[in-house]
Design brief:
Number of helices: 7
Structural class: alpha/beta
Order of helices and strands: HEHEHHEHEHEHE
Distance between the termini: 32 Å
Strand content: 5-15%
Number of strands: 6
Radius of gyration: 21 Å
Largest sheet: 4 strands, parallel
Strand order of the largest sheet: 1-2-3-4
């Protein structure tokens, strides 16, 4: 799916979701209590899973489903038992303690609106349900501020401004980190990598060792290696 190689699996999806949270904490240096989790459609599965296990600042679910089997039950009846259950949002949502906003349009014919209503009722945290009449499953949320933007600002305590700029480390833009990268005939690179401690590991996430870039405060950065030309 996307740039992820290999057959899709529940374990693979959850590993990618955990890696994204670890990147936000380790590379972007965002505290867990300031991170809001956003999931849409099939993405609500890993979003609820993460929010149920970590004390994040909030959870936003757009067109969520109750469970994979329930979704298939609406279409194939008793045969839904043959489907493997990857994401049981109905049970997981009861473990979520952060403020939760659920958005589900009434014109959604892919995941019926009743799924969002059931997830909302099962949620025991502070919650809000947005049910736009004209919204379909794949409706662009920015076409109407009433779908997401206005409810989000009313429900969450969002700051009007920030005095800190989000710093993305240079290595995050390095195309060589992608599995799809094809090395050209010639390239110039620096092999310097800075060790650091992982905030994500302190909250139980399996975080890989990530380099910090050249502006890591408090980290020892060895002198850059001379450029190397590879042919």
């Amino acid at each position: 799916y996307g740039v992820c190689r290999g057959p899709p699996s529940r374990a693979g999806v959850l590993a990618n979701a955990s890696a994204a949270l670890a990147f936000a904490m380790d590379a972007l240096r965002l505290p867990l209590e300031s991170i809001k989790i956003f999931g849409r459609s099939i993405g609500t599965g890993p979003a609820v899973y993460i929010a149920a296990r970590h004390r994040v600042a909030g959870l936003i679910l757009v067109t969520p489903f109750w469970s994979i089997r329930k979704l298939f039950q609406d279409r194939v009846g008793p045969l839904h038992y043959l489907v493997e259950e990857w994401f049981d949002n109905g049970n997981e949502i009861m473990q979520v303690r952060c403020p939760t906003m659920i958005i589900h349009g009434k014109r959604d014919i892919i995941i019926p609106c009743c799924h969002g209503e059931m997830v909302f009722k099962a949620c025991t945290a502070r919650k809000m349900f947005v049910n736009p009449h004209a919204m379909e499953h794949n409706t662009n949320l920015t076409t109407d501020t009433a779908f997401l933007i206005v409810p989000m600002f009313r429900f969450f305590a969002l700051p009007d401004y920030s005095f800190q700029d989000l710093k993305v480390p240079i290595w995050a833009y390095d195309k060589r980190r992608s599995h799809e990268y094809v090395r050209p005939d010639m390239e110039v690179y620096s092999a310097a990598v800075a060790p650091f401690s992982s905030p994500a590991r302190r909250v139980g996430l399996d975080s890989p060792d990530l380099p910090q870039g050249d502006s890591c405060d408090g980290c020892y950065i060895p002198p850059p290696s001379p450029p190397v030309c590879q042919i």
